[in-house]
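Here is an idea for our session: we take a single protein and study its fold together. Which protein we use is up to you, so please pick one and set it down. Once you have written the record down, we can walk along the chain together:
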Amino acid sequence: AQVDSELDKVMATMLRLPWPIVPKAHVSINSVVPRVADPSAYALSLVGQGCSVMKMKVGGGSLQDDVNTVNLLCNVLKDYGTRLRLDANRSWTLNEATSFWRSLERPDLV
């Protein structure tokens, strides 16, 4: 247990996350952004409907495509107070997840 805790602390430091990480019992979302040709237009339409927390699947394509899409959405949504929740369904390795996180322009919105 002590080793796991130390590894968790190292991971949080690498990802520039606060420590200790206290998992939430419930994560709210009120909309889903599907894989569509223009995710920014779709997300803006959800904002127009009053949605403020959007879930998006990642990990189904290339890591760089996911980074580009999430960065695009964050830049489009940043002025609306909208947050993104990402679901990778364990499709990334630890190195891929770390690379993804470090490539985000606005990790504060994710």
Remarks:
- The chain has a mean pLDDT of 86.
- Residues 24-109 form a domain with the TIM Barrel fold (CATH 3.20.20.120).
- Strands lie at 31-33, 53-57, 83-87.
